[in-house]
């Protein structure tokens, strides 16, 4: 298995220059992001998400531990040629959008003719082709974020690391970015997405990690996380709501939730009562519920296993 | 080399307003050349010329000392360093940018100086030699400021730079002229400031070459320091 991004027992402490105060932003953090997946990276403010991303990009050094970006140790400039990065609160130079994208592309060593064509392409992808000759300094925050995405994609990267890429975007632009990321994943790219927009993450991410207080609190496939695994919803017809605790009548059917281990007994009871089973489904939870549950814990639980 | 040039040109572009403001002072020299009786007012012209030379030296420290700070504070540095660009290349670009900014100014000062001072009897070749001295001094002063700015804020970086540049000058005054060559910014500045119509000064290339060599040394030192600096941490 090839990994696009690996953190191996990484700890990062911030130390004040003059006092003895220390802040542990990441604590023995390990994570592996597989190639070709969209990986959701969640956590409350101050959980250490941006620190992890900045370590991966080589903007800072870990206090201990190590990590690899596309197989190379963190901090190697040459590997960043294959990476696209969009920082949180994107900040760009005040110049026209197309030359700006070309400037960032040129820093990655893209040849001039190819770069001109590619800059035009990426601006079209993010829907800014009509604003290519406008000064980015006069753009709205949402437009700036789209230019930021364009500069991140200008080198056609194998790995996209995006820190809050949709925070300032309107719903239409969010759908555009979502489709863009799905298309990139289908083209074999890896996307590492840090976001507070849990509904977005729920829709597009293959796996999700939740970081809390510098520790990995939860890591699983999105589908697994969303299935509680403990509750089953059964919808039946031909019986009364009185037969099951908490059962409700809806559109001529009766539905109720029971613990998963009681499922067989409940179904037999329905049949014995002369009822018909319409559907049996595991209860799905929202990512928001899981996020709140994980981050509300007084201390982050250790993950069961790191993939 | 291309990324270094891109960073340098981008730096000059970002500093275009301070550079243009500085150039206004040079235009003042040209204006004086137009409106004064050059032969009678030549000492005044030389005074303005020297004053303009001091400005660019101060501005090169300002440019070098604030370059990284401004980029970090605006977070633009993240976008630049997320590309296939090493920190050493980034710093090289900034050093080159400071040098280009100073050179543009010195070239313009040289042009107006050749016109006004040349007409007043100052050797034109010596005007250009003084400009080379000035560019070398600016390059070294800017690089020293840049080195300090990798770990200090611009205010302290400027103070530390003034100390590093000033101590050899002071030692030169007390213990002998040789000490002035340790970091020859003062020596190069003095070459410009001490020149006069009666005695334009001796053209010695030693401090110019020393400044070039020391610029490389300070650039390497700053790259070494900057490689260990966490750049995504809040500046303040």
Please give a handful of descriptors for the protein shown:
heterodimer, A: 307 residues, alpha/beta, six-stranded mixed beta sheet, four-stranded antiparallel beta sheet, 9 helices, B: 236 residues, mainly alpha
What does this structure look like?
The complex is a heterodimer of chains A (307) and B (236). Chain A has 307 residues and is of the alpha/beta class. Chain A has helices at residues 49-56, 97-107, 112-125, 141-153, 171-186, 198-204, 222-226, 263-272, 287-296, and strands at 3-15, 22-34, 38-42, 64-69, 72-73, 83-86, 159-163, 190-194, 207-212, 215-221, 227-237, 248-250, 253-259, 276-284. In chain A, the strands form three sheets. Chain A has a six-stranded mixed sheet with strand order 6-7-8-3-9-10, sandwiched between helices. A four-stranded antiparallel sheet of chain A has the order 2-1-4-5, with helices on one face. In chain A, strands 12-13-11-14 form a four-stranded antiparallel sheet. In chain A, α2 packs across α3 and α2 (97-107) runs parallel beside α4. Chain A is globular, with a radius of gyration of 24 Å. The mean pLDDT of chain A is 87. Chain B is an all-alpha fold. Helix content of chain B is 77%, strand content 0%. In chain B, α5 (87-119) runs antiparallel to α9 (206-226). The longest helix of chain B has 33 residues, at 87-119. Chain B is globular and about 60 Å long. The two termini of chain B are 32 Å apart. The model of chain B has no long low-confidence stretch (mean pLDDT 88). The A-B interface holds A 14, 50-51, 54, 57-61, 77-81, 83, 85, 87, 89-93, 95, 103-104, 106-109, 148, 151, 155 and B 2-3, 6-7, 10, 13-14, 74-76, 78-86, 89, 228, 230-233.
């Amino acid at each position: 298995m090839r990994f696009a991004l690996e953190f191996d027992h990484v700890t990062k402490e911030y130390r004040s220059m003059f006092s003895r105060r220390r802040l542990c932003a990441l604590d023995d953090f390990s994570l592996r992001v597989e190639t070709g997946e969209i990986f959701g990276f969640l956590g409350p403010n101050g959980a250490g998400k941006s620190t992890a991303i900045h370590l991966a990009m080589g903007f800072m050094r870990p206090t201990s531990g190590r990590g690899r970006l596309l197989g190379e140790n963190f901090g190697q400039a040459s590997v960043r040629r294959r990476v696209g990065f969009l920082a949180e609160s994107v900040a760009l130079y005040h110049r026209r959008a197309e030359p700006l994208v070309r400037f960032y592309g040129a820093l990655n060593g893209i040849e001039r003719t190819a770069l001109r064509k590619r800059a035009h392409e990426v601006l079209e992808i993010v829907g800014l082709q009509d604003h290519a000759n406008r000064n980015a300094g006069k753009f709205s925050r949402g437009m700036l974020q789209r230019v930021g995405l364009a500069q991140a994609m200008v080198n056609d990267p194998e790995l996209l690391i995006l820190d809050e890429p949709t925070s300032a975007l309107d719903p239409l632009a969010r759908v555009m970015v979502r489709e863009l990321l799905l298309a990139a994943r289908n083209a074999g790219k890896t996307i590492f997405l840090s976001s507070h927009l849990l509904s977005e993450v729920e829709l597009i991410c293959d796996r999700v990690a939740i970081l809390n207080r510098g520790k990995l609190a939860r890591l699983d496939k999105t589908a697994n996380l969303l299935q509680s695994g403990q509750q089953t919803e059964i919808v039946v017809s031909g019986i009364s709501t009185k037969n099951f605790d908490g059962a409700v009548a809806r559109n001529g059917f009766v539905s109720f939730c029971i613990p998963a281990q009681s499922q067989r007994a409940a179904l037999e009871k329905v049949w014995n009562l002369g009822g018909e089973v319409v559907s049996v489904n595991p209860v799905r939870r929202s990512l928001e519920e899981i996020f709140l549950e994980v981050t509300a814990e007084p201390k982050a639980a250790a993950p069961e296993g790191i993939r | 080399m291309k990324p270094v040039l891109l960073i340098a040109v981008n730096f000059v572009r970002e500093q275009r307003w301070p550079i243009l403001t500085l150039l206004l002072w040079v235009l003042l020299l040209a204006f004086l050349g137009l409106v004064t009786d050059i032969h009678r007012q030549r000492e005044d012209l030389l005074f303005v010329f020297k004053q303009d030379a001091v400005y660019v030296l101060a501005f090169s420290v300002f440019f070098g000392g604030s370059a990284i700070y401004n980029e970090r504070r605006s977070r633009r540095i993240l976008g630049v360093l997320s590309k296939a660009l090493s920190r050493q290349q980034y710093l090289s670009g900034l050093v080159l940018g400071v040098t280009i900014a100073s050179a543009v100014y010195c070239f313009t000062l040289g042009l107006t100086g050749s016109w006004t001072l040349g007409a007043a009897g100052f050797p034109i070749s010596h005007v250009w030699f003084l400009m080379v001295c000035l560019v070398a001094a600016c390059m070294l002063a800017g690089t020293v400021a840049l080195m300090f700015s990798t770990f200090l804020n611009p205010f302290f970086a400027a103070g530390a730079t003034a100390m590093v540049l000033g101590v050899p000058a002071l030692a030169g005054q007390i213990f002998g002229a040789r000490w002035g060559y340790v970091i020859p910014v003062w020596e190069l500045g003095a070459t410009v400031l001490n020149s006069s119509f009666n005695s334009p000064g001796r053209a010695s290339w030693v401090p110019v070459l020393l400044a070039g060599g020391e610029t490389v040394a300070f650039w390497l030192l700053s790259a070494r320091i900057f490689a260990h600096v966490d750049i995504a941490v809040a500046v303040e």
